[in-house]
Fold this protein.
Amino acid sequence: MFRRLKFDESSKQHFLFIYEGFLAGGNVAKDTRTGDVKRRERSIIRALKAISVENEAREPYPGSEEHPRELVLNGDTPREVEFEQASLDLLVRYMESVPWNMVLVDKAMDAVDFVMAADKV
């Protein structure tokens, strides 16, 4: 089964927490990742990068030349990404494993709920 995330202006902030949370959660789990998990991670990263651009106004990630990303909207047409259920589960697991600052936990968990509510395709 596949699940579809649809992003529009109202969910633009969710994208930030999804992308950042996925990266941070993957770093937390880095010692337990198998080759299959790394391939799934790669497919998730590629899907999220396909609908976003680097925000060069922000500092690059530590140890990297890559800047944080932001969602690129296409007018009133929502941006969509599809994931297999196993990829969506990995995304949620990583986001939930992040030790979010208490100031951010409300928005971070809203983003997790957004992912968990993805349309079934």
Summary: The radius of gyration is 14 Å. Residues 59 and 67 are 6 Å apart (CA to CA). The first strand starts at residue 2 and ends at 7. The chain has one domain: 2-120.
